[in-house]
Specification:
Distance between the termini: 39 Å
Structural class: mainly alpha
Order of helices and strands: HHHEEHHH
Helix content: 55-70%
Radius of gyration: 18 Å
Strand content: 5-15%
Number of helices: 6
Length: 145
């Protein structure tokens, strides 16, 4: 498992929405794209997918843009990645019987690794990501004093 560009951009966009969550104002695609250096058109496609999954909602009009679909502490990173990548912990189990004992052992270990990754992604929310970012920024400020 690795972090795809699609998931990384989506998580960065959602982080921006989490940062502005308390303001109650929508963020426009160009604002998010500029802050996170994401191509506008690609971000537009990602946000459409996230909207279909209920992770963001949109508002039309001159003051339009995107909001989080729920509170940032209620959206897990696993939900986001699953929405974009179509991940399902149960689908990683292969229905076919392994041909050798070695293949069976390898599948068992691989499945354990995938479950561990899912567990970590399920543990963290957008709020956690925001707090980690804020604390990292505080550390960066300390270095420049």
């Amino acid at each position: 498992m690795e972090l795809s560009c699609k998931s990384e951009y989506a998580l960065l966009a959602l982080l921006e929405l989490a940062i502005s969550y308390n303001e109650g104002e929508p963020l426009q695609i160009r604002q998010i794209a500029a802050k996170q250096n994401i191509p506008d058109r690609y971000l537009e496609q990602l946000l459409a997918t996230l909207r279909r999954c209920g992770l963001v909602r949109s508002q039309r009009g001159a003051k339009g843009g995107y909001f989080l679909g729920r509170e940032p502490w209620k959206i897990t990173l696993l939900e986001v990645v699953s929405c974009l990548e179509g991940l399902d912990p149960q689908s990683s189990k292969l229905d076919t019987k392994p041909k050798t004992v070695e293949s069976a052992v390898l599948r068992e270990i691989w499945h354990e690794g995938i479950e561990a990754a899912y567990s970590v992604l399920q543990k963290y929310t957008l709020q956690d990501m925001r707090e980690k970012r804020d604390s990292r920024r505080q550390l960066d400020i300390m270095y420049y004093i």
